[in-house]
UniProtKB/TrEMBL annotation:
Alphabetized SUPFAM superfamilies for the sequence: lambda repressor-like DNA-binding domains
Signal peptide boundaries: none
Transmembrane regions: none
Protein name: XRE family transcriptional regulator
Length: 80
């Protein structure tokens, strides 16, 4: 699987989790102290997500980062 496919899968999972929490991009960005454009760029793939940002986002969504990462790996395996 290419990096682009893996990145798209992770982005999709993060969007789903944000929506499940009932948050808009602006609301999640507010929890992170970032502008809404930050979330928009991450979700659209215009910006890469680093591991520290991933942890911050998971925690802002009230999720365990390790569990969220494990779920993203499982999602990748389902696609293969």
């Amino acid at each position: 699987m290419s990096w682009l496919q893996s990145s798209a899968t992770l982005r999709k999972l993060l969007v789903e989790q944000r929506q499940a929490e009932g948050l808009s991009q602006a609301e999640l960005a507010g929890r992170l102290g970032r502008p809404q454009a930050f979330i928009s760029r991450l979700e659209s793939g215009q910006r890469r997500l680093d591991v520290f940002e991933f942890v911050d986002i998971a925690e802002a969504l009230h999720l365990d980062p390790v569990t969220l990462f494990a779920n993203s790996i499982k999602a990748l395996h389902r696609i293969r």
